[in-house]
Amino acid sequence: MTHFAKTLLNLSLFAVFAGGTFSTAASPRKGNGERYVDLGTAAAGFQASVRKGAGQVTVVREIDRLIFYPDKRYAFFDGVRINLSYPLLMRHGKPCLAKTDCDSVITPFLSPGKRYRQQIVTIVLDPGHGGRDRGTAGSRLLEKNVTLNLAERVAKILRTYGYKVILTRTRDVWIPLDARSATANRARADLFVSIHANSALDRSVSGIETFCLTPEGAASSNAGTPVSRRYPGNRNNSRNFLLAYRVQRSLLKRTGAFDSGVKFARFAVLREVNCPAVLIETGFLSNWKEETNLRNPAYLDKVARGIAAGILNYHRSLAR
Predict the structure, then answer these.
(1) What is the pTM of this model?
(2) Among 117, 136, 295, 296, which residue carries the largest CB count within 10 Å?
(3) Same domain for 36 and 125?
């Protein structure tokens, strides 16, 4: 992953918390092309405190622990790896975080129920690939078959909780990417979850990762170039992240898989959808152990229950 520049020159910062988002002082200077806020002042708005330790900064509130690392574009929220849009910077001994990350990551995590209430009735599940598009492949599995199997399992679980669940495909057919998000928009879906399996040239690479749409003006997790364009999906930046976090955490708890993190990307199926949306990479078919797991019905059931539990936890967190 390409990181943004790690230095910030001649920056004078002061921040206050206001109106549910973080606000910087008038005419602030910028680091990495982004406005930064004082993390300590911002955390205080959530009755949280900041502790500085050897090589890390921790935001503490009751049982929550948000661990950041100076000059790094990642953090750990209650043990789950979170990829940030910008690195944490230290200025005059004070930790400073990009306003984009404060608004789209910290605020929904620390204050979901107060600001992001949402009625959830209809959920669209999107089994990735299909038909002539087989997706990636392992030695015995095709991604298109894994994703449909998982989507059907997740749908069955969610329906027992009373949700209306729609699948973008129910058989082995090819569906254009824009038609997948269009299905959710036509159905006035409340959530959109796209299910995939991963692959890497290095066959030792493993893990589960959950993506949400990159905030406008930021670079995606696996890219170094910021994009200023705002897509329809960016209206739900905060909810997108919260859903991704809840799903990732539940998947890790159910499966014990390696945590590849919550990440940001501008995938086509996430850009145009009007409701909160995530894309899940459920494991690497290029990894022998994970392909073996994804052939096992008992493990597939764990993955499906992890996805469903993440959705339920997301819904419950908004109702608190």
Answers:
(1) 0.90
(2) 136
(3) no
- Predicted local distance difference test score (pLDDT) of residue 224: 75
Q: Does residue 40 sit in the same domain as residue 166?
A: no
Same domain, 87 and 132: no
Helix %, strand %, coil % for the chain, to 5? 35, 30, 40
Which residue type does 200 have?
A: A
Q: Residue 304 corresponds to which tokens in the numbers above?
A: 């499906």
Q: What is the DSSP string of 243-269?
A: HHHHHHHHHHHHH---EEEEEEE--HH
Distance CA 24, CA 235 (A): 21
Q: With 0-12 CB in 10 A as exposed, 13-18 as middle and 19+ as buried, what is 295?
A: middle
182: in domain: yes
CATH of the domain at 252: 3.40.630.40
Per-residue confidence (pLDDT) for residue 178, from 0 to 100: 96
C-beta atoms surrounding 114 within 10 Å: 12
The segments of the chain whose pLDDT lies below 50 read 1-29
What pLDDT is recorded for position 17? 32
Range of the structural domain that residue 181 is part of:
115-319
Co-location of 238 and 276 in the same domain? yes
- d(CA 114, CA 84) in angstroms, rounded, equals 23
